[in-house]
# Entry
Amino acid sequence: MNHLAYKTKLKLNNQQKTLMGQCGGYSRWVWNWALDFKQKAYGEDIKLNKSQLRKYYTNYVKPNYSWQSDLSSKIYQYAFVNLDNAYKRFFKGLAKYPRFKKKGKSTNSFTLDASGKPIVLGGKYHKLPFFSWLKTHEKLPICRTKKVTFSEQAGDWYISFLIEVDFLPVEKTREKVGVDVGISKLATLSCGKVFENPKAYYKAQNWLTRLQRDLSRKVFHSSNWYKARLKVQKAHRRVANIRSNAIHHLTGYLAKNHSEVILEDLNVKGMVKNRRLSKALSDASLGMIREQIVYKCSWYDTVLQIADRFFPSSQLCSECGHRQKMPLSQRIYRCGSCNSRKDRDFNASLNLENYEALAAGSVALRSVDKEVPSPLDESDGKHRSDVQLCTTLS
Ligand SMILES: [Zn+2]
# Structure
């Protein structure tokens, strides 16, 4: 059984939107109250756990605020749970110390459940606790969940929840596939399939710059400033959505249709440090690919192999095993030994497919050209590691 996170946009009327805002405000209010109270108690050497804090709040604080009784009591209960989790993450060293939430700056969100009963969603209209019926833009399959979280992003509200899914083993169409992840093309597969990079950011750059300029000309915190800021936020969200959609499409295809996926070790951090490449690389979101492929392969019983960082996938000839330098500008691999010609990325993906044999035999690796690599192309992080291999071998 796997957990799948689902998040989709809600279609709300104004009344519902206002109510959502109130609930989000309530959640934030309780979070801030609890954080403040906890800190003050700590200053007097009193440590309070989640249930003590909640008991005190329910008996002595909540009755003083009548507006809170109009909203679901689940909201404040989950605010305590969330704060407690934030503290746990902090003590484990996974997150920063919990901070106070500011209206308009922190994400507006809250969680609801149906007191132990399952919440069933399906179609476009969903019966939810406290809100009764809410509509989503997207038609959902029938799914059951224990709790739902609402969050606001760039002026729109989203609902998210976890569902338990049993992934049935699917029939694989291909045994092995090597994947060359790149910048101009998102990925080239050894079966010949190419996934284009939507380059969402590049395409949207002018548009984003214009919106950003509009925003900077408005009077800070004026109503026109808020309107312009919303436009900027929406544009950024759109870019992020396009990017994430393309990556989900790729990783899903890889994990579902193959028994084994062989991927380069993408040293994301090292590559993004390089300024000239960083924008393009962040655009391709290599980290996201790696992250998704790991969990999707586990869903579909697919073996994932990550090729060694020093494996010279783009320098080897996939036909004869000859090795030669391949500056990034060279888009076609013309083998100096057997004269075969292949697209650079396709050639690399074929080498990745044969990674095991190549790495085990090291046949190809030993036939390294003795010639000394030229001063490195600064923009090519991938090749730097390849060249390191040359030097260690010679
Ligand atoms: Zn060759």
In short: The chain has three domains: 2-165, 177-300, 332-393.
